[in-house]
Structures are given as structure tokens and as C-alpha cells.
Design a protein that fits this description.
Elements (H helix, E strand, L loop, with lengths): L1 E9 L16 H13 L6 E2 L8 E11 L5 H11 L4 E8 L12 E10 L25 E3 L5 H9 L3 E4 L26 E12 L2 E8 L6 H13 L8 H7 L14 E7 L1
Parallel strand pairs: 3-10, 5-6
Antiparallel strand pairs: 1-3, 1-4, 2-3, 5-9, 5-10, 7-8, 8-9
Helix pairs in contact: 1-2, 3-4
Length: 269
């Protein structure tokens, strides 16, 4: 058996997330079918994490073992031919013994992309005309209708740096196998994460939020972005994020940002 480590990029628009689901198109299921087609072996590739329906990846990592003695370059080419066009394996190499795409990971980086349909308030513009988001771009950004302030967005993003209980930013229906329920109760060790960087930038007309951390709870990045946007458009106070964290209550934070703007960028080992 050879243990393989692969790095994948995919457009998540047409997939019901990473995790295999009966009767539904998923990234994990598509990769498993490609491996079966090429090697004749039925295996379940393990991903670094479960991206949700509609979420994209530029650096998802998957590991799998097969017995077929196929040279790496040949296997790489064959798998890409067998995969749908929305999924591509960027690299494929033998992994060290014991490597596991999820269990061996020590950190991840996500990026969230916003198309600001209202110009940023660099100069006061009363009732600015909304900008038009190209249909070629729309599947990969949140076409946000609010006028946002970059300084306020960054101020809110700075507040999550460090180690915190992120229960307020976890999905309201967390997976009990890995997380406890979201209740404004004592600190849940499973909901504690460390954020190493949390930054907003303006690039080529898009607002980009990039965050690196030890790990992320279900919907955590999207819930952070939804809350930051509430700050950025003046709906909640700029200094409210530490208080929201302290409540450990999902209902205290902002809405969940749309899945289509989220990308898994990199996994660290």
C-alpha cells in the first residue's frame, strides 16, 4: 500500500460540500470515484476538513492509500482525467508513514471575498450608485449591498486575534462528535481556537478577509465575516466583538455570510 498526499483545488458551486453523501455530488465522493476508476480500489480519501456546500478550495489536502503500483506522475494525470472539470489535483506525492490529512494538520488559512456593490466611503458619496458584479465573478464572491468601512472591518477583525472560546461564532447546530452544543454556558474546551492572523485588505476592487488559525468550527469563518460586515456598515458598535465572544452565544453574533465567498487557501502540517 502506498499512502498518497494530494492538494486539490475546486469550485464548490455544484457540490454539496466535501463529505460524501448518498445521492448527492460531493468533492470527497468525486475523488473516491476517480480513484476507483483509475486503480480499481474502493477507498475513502480523507480531507483536511469538511468544506460546506458551495465553499471553494485552492489548497484542500486529501490523503488515501492504494495498492496499485502506479507511478506518481501517471496517477496524477489519470486522476485529473477522471475527475469532473470543477476539481483538479494540483500536486500528488507519497506521504510519510502515519500522515493523515486531517489529524496531522496544525493550522489552516481561509480567505473570504466580498464584492462591495457600494463604493467604499473613502469620500462621502450620498446614496452612491451600486456597482455591478460580473456574472463571471458572482459565484466566487459575496455581492454585498452595504457600504462598508475598511477601517471598521479591520478593527473588528483584530478583536479575534489570540486564543478564545468561539462558541458565539460556531454553527447553531454544531456536530456533537467534535463540538459541544452552542450554549451560553461555561467555556467549552472543544470550541477554543487560536487565531494567528486576521486581516482585511482591498485588492482589485474586492474586499478580502484572510484568517489563519489552529482550526475552525463549523461556519466559524462565515459567521465572523457576517459579524464584521455588521460592524463595517455601522449596524453594530466597533468595540462589540470582544463582548460577543464573552457571551458564548451564537445569537449574539451577526448573520452567516454566504458560502460562495469562502475559500480554503492552505493547510499547514
Amino acid at each position: 500500500m502506498v499512502l498518497w498526499k494530494s492538494i486539490l483545488a475546486y469550485d464548490g458551486t455544484a457540490f454539496h460540500g466535501w463529505q460524501i453523501q448518498p445521492g448527492l455530488p460531493t468533492v470527497q465522493g468525486s475523488l473516491a470515484q476517480a480513484i476507483l476508476h483509475v486503480s480499481g480500489e474502493s477507498v475513502l480519501p480523507q480531507g483536511s476538513g469538511r468544506t460546506d456546500t458551495g465553499v471553494h478550495a485552492l489548497g484542500q489536502v486529501a490523503s488515501f492509500s492504494i495498492a496499485a503500483p502506479i507511478p506518481g506522475p501517471n496517477l496524477h494525470r489519470a486522476l485529473n482525467r477522471a475527475l469532473p472539470p470543477a476539481i483538479r489535483i494540483l500536486s500528488l506525492e507519497p506521504a510519510a508513514p502515519g500522515f493523515h490529512a486531517r489529524h496531522s494538520a496544525i493550522g489552516k488559512t481561509y480567505e473570504y471575498r466580498i464584492f462591495p456593490s457600494r463604493p467604499l466611503p473613502l469620500t462621502p458619496i450620498p446614496d452612491p450608485m451600486p456597482l455591478i458584479c460580473s456574472p463571471m465573478l458572482a459565484p466566487f464572491v459575496w455581492d454585498c449591498p452595504f457600504q462598508l468601512d475598511l477601517a471598521l472591518l479591520q478593527n473588528a477583525a483584530d478583536a479575534v486575534l489570540g486564543t478564545h472560546d468561539f462558541t458565539s461564532f460556531a454553527a447553531s447546530d454544531p456536530d456533537l462528535a467534535t463540538r459541544e452544543a452552542s450554549t451560553a454556558a461555561p467555556i467549552h474546551a472543544t470550541n477554543i481556537r487560536t487565531i494567528h492572523s486576521s486581516t482585511w485588505i482591498l485588492s482589485d476592487g474586492l474586499l478580502l478577509y484572510r484568517v489563519t488559525g489552529s482550526g475552525f468550527l463549523h461556519h466559524m469563518v462565515r459567521n465572523l465575516v457576517g459579524t464584521f460586515v455588521e460592524v463595517g456598515c455601522g449596524r453594530i458598535a466597533p468595540n462589540s466583538v470582544p463582548y460577543i465572544l464573552s457571551l458564548r452565544d451564537r445569537s449574539a453574533a451577526g448573520p452567516t455570510a454566504p458560502a460562495r465567498g469562502l475559500f480554503l487557501i492552505e493547510v499547514n502540517y
